[in-house]
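Extended Data, panel c. Modelled sequence:
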Amino acid sequence: MFCPACAHEDTKVIDTRIAADGTSVRRRRECGACGHRFSTIEGIELLDLVVIKRDGSREAYTSEKVEHGLRRALEKRPHTDAQVRGLMSAIERDIQRENASEMASGRIGEIVMERLKTFDKVAYIRFASVYRSFEDVKEFKKELEDL
């Protein structure tokens, strides 16, 4: 890895720690040329996953899209950024465990809802109302009764 200070390519790892959620590794590095110390974070990438949309089109999985929907549902709810990141990590672990090269967008939505249901019921209802396209109050009531 190149040093961000001098661009020398000889850096060594001097400390490694696994993140609390187990999905990333933080490494402390030192440049062999200038002695500059810096940190890197390694995480799992779901690069090979193709999402099959409802209309049949396909696109590469992007965690940003899932996280955006999640954060919208959790807007103005009493959760820290660290808690939301932890939830996102759990969702991505669940997606990874499916061990599939292709996944329907509906399945990803179900995984998000399963996690939200136990994390924050209000956010769950918000997400479900958009995801399931609630048309009227009866559908809201039914979902609330199922909680």
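The chain has two domains: 11-43, 50-146. This feature is highlighted in the accompanying rendering.
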